[in-house]
Amino acid sequence: MPDLPSISVQISALPDSPGVYQFYDVEGKILYVGKAKNLKKRVSSYFNKKQEYGKTRVLVKKIKSVKHIVVATESDALLLENNLIKKLLPRYNVLLKDDKSYPWICIKKERFPRVFSTRKLIKDGSEYYGPYTSMKTVRTLLELVRSLYPLRTCNYDLSEEKIAAGKYKVCLEYHLGNCLGPCEGFQSEEEYHGQIESIRQIIKGNFKSSLQHFKSQMKQMAAEMEFEKAQRIKDKIDILENYQARSTVVNPKINNVDVFTIISDETHGYVNFLQLSHGSIVRSHTMEIKKKLEESNEELLQLAITEIRQRFNSQSKEIYLPFPVLVEENIKVTLPKLGEKRRILELSERNARFFRQDRFKQIKITDPDRHTKRIMAQMKADLRLSEEPTHIECFDNSNIQGSNPVAACVVFKNGKPAKKEYRHFNIKTVEGPDDFASMEEVVFRRYKRLLSEDEPLPQLIVIDGGKGQLSSALKSLDILGLRGKIAIIGIAKRLEEIYFPEDPIPLYLDKKSESLKIIQQLRNEAHRFGITHHRNRRSKGAIDSELENIDGIGKKTAEQLLKEFKSVKRVKEATIERLAESVGMAKAKKIYKNFH
Q: Where is the signal peptide (predicted)?
């Protein structure tokens, strides 16, 4: 590239007008395309302030030149930005691409038009409706149309001259009642085009005119005593009303409206699009968008609206949104707060959420590394951590009526249990049931050992308990000099509150949050592991005490008997001679006499 003036000089030359800017690197490769209400202010903002996100800082360091295109309005900039992103494929832009070809319903430009599905748009004057996001929807619509109106399926040239010359003969479809034989002049062009007009309305979601037409026909046939024909028309009315009942999910007065919602996580956004016509959802599509520069929901939704409306050739003049964003001119934006419109918005959001869940399930199977990275990134954001918690340890105390106090430490790595690293602790320095002191002891013992053995420390410690247990654990971290080096939180069981050090107000995560599910899984696993160890100790203690209660039998003899006979039951069943082999005849007589 030729020598360029400095970035500051290039920015100073930018106009204060709406437009689109393009960033290029030292080799002249496109880095980023953006739009702005004021080009100079927007481009300057990249260089005048410290960027919050790492990827944006990297982008700014690479920028060597800025180009711009001035447009009349901000909405013009929106459309131009979308087109340039698709054309130039900048590295740091979200790319809204879709390699899938969607089906359309075609009404062919012919004297007697055929109606069929296609994935190719041919500019020959034919009418195309769609695209539809599901072939199943297309098939269902075509089946409905063909059950109501007999249409030709042949590809003959049904010109007036050829029909008059008797060039064609009716086929099997005519004899089956699926076609009225326009090829032999049995059906007029006017009647056929009347059917086509009704089909247009049905495809658009408007069933009213077809229902009125069939009802008037049915009454006329009944008045003329043509009851069989009247019954056949009634069957068509039933088919149409059943389909309408299934497809009408909102108020029929809501017509020609697009609905957009978005949900997102740390790495991706999911935008759902619903198109409403005459109270029916005629199209639903969810787009997954990978974030490049930690884009906000507003930025992602704005890009997606422009792209989706272009892709699906939407002519709707009103859109429902969860929050305001810039859209094309002459489009009415509605932000529903309650009532039926709000329920439609919630339905769209639910579709986006279900799509996201399905994608997670697929990714968990096909790309477990991406699944793990996403969950770690989500936990980092939800719990306000400085790094992703790939190594987490959770502590839980177990004691029943103060007997055999124990504690458990479970370890999760990359969101999964690392069972070989689980540890049990028998409480040594605490007398009686004191959860706070017990927690202080086990946390101190655990991390003193990891430090002395130069083992890696976790990024996050989870304490099963509220503010009291968390404070006790913090005392140990203070003594070891680990305060502030390891993130630590407490989880209280009652309402699943998350407590942070020195913050009296707990955090409440969404009950469906994956971060909360991981923390609950940690807590439950620590509880299970601790309880199992506690039961084993109590059980062993009960067995030991049963043998030690025999007069003349001490702790060492009881342990020797259990080591050799494996259980108290076998000791009870042993003969006096067999017992004598283990502990001598004098003790054997006492044991045998006690059990017999």
A: none
What is the number of other CB atoms lying within 10 angstroms of the CB of residue 151? 22
Q: What kind and span of H or E run contains 106?
A: strand 104-107
Q: Which two tokens stand for residue 486?
A: 């390891």
End-to-end CA distance of the chain: 102
At 229-239, the pLDDT tens digits run 888 888 878 77
Neighbours of 299 (CB within 10 A): 17
Question: What is the amino acid identity at position 586?
Answer: A
* Nearest Cα residue to 223 out of 233, 211, 210, 212: 233
| Omega of the bond leading into 131 within 30 degrees of 0 (cis) | yes
| CA–CA dist 571, 569 (Å, integer) | 5
Place of tokens 């005392």: 475
pTM metric for this prediction: 0.58
- Given pLDDT bands bounded at 50, 70 and 90, which one contains residue 536? low
Q: How do residues 142-152 score in pLDDT, each as one tens digit?
A: 887 888 888 88
Is residue 92 over pLDDT 80? yes
Please name every residue paired with 509 in a beta bridge, in sequence order, or none if there are none.
none
Identify the H or E element spanning 516: helix 514-548
3-state secondary structure of 492: strand
Question: What does DSSP assign to residue 125?
Answer: S
